[in-house]
Amino acid sequence: MLAALGALLCVCCSIEEGSAYTFRTFMGAEIAATAISSSAVVQRPCECRALCRDACVAVAIRRQPPRHFHCSFTDETVADATTNLTVPAPDSKVFYKRLVCLPGFTLVDNVGCIYVSTAALNFTAAAASCPSDSQLFTANFLIDFNAMRNYLKKTFVVPPNKFWIGLTRLGNSTTWKWFGGGTIEATHPSPYWNPRDPNENTDCAMLYFRPSTGFFYDVADTSCAGQMQFLCKQN
To answer: What is the DSSP track for the chain?
Structure first.
């Protein structure tokens, strides 16, 4: 019953979050067993966030093989990732309710608070220039990534467009790591990468929009020295 309600609420996630709150993310953490008020098993991570209503203050989400997600809810205040209400858990993330976006940020449905720069900088400078309490955009789940792409396709419609994101290559491998944790592989087919990428043997990634060449805010690799705008996500 609870999971069915979550599936229904997932359709309304953007309305719920956009009108009331967004979430602050703590990577690699789980709500301590003594602080859990309830739990549920759902099919999509957004269902966990949608079920965190009323007295719920935070929800921890971890993958439950083969195709489900486990949600742990708490009604106690989880002020930061070091509180005794959370415990380390590499495969889990805690989403803590946050009421407003910082000035200059826009609430993007199912993503969080996003800042779009006006300045064009290289990757290192862009990473250092995100406003306080934010970092270059990272996708905690595929649903976050797709929601970001959809927002950009509706908002920045004149090509070409490209934005730095918080994704870099690990050494000379095919593994790319998001800022703050989580990885994606540079293999195909991929829900992240354009079919032509990565192809430049570089270490930095962007979201690129150029429909005439088949890019619709797909991930593409490029030289870290390039100059472009950047996307920051509020922590």
So the answer is: -HHHHHHHHHHTHHHHHHHT-EEEEEEEEEE-GGG--EEEEESSHHHHHHH--TT--EEEEEEETTTEEEEEEE-S---STTSTTEEEEEEEEEEEEE--PPTT-EEETTTEEEEE-SS-B-HHHHHHHSPTTEEE---SSHHHHHHHHHHHHHH--SS-EEEEEEEEE-TTSSEEEETTS-EEES-SS-SSB-TT-S-S--SEEEEEEEGGGTEEEEEEEE-TT--BEEEEEE-
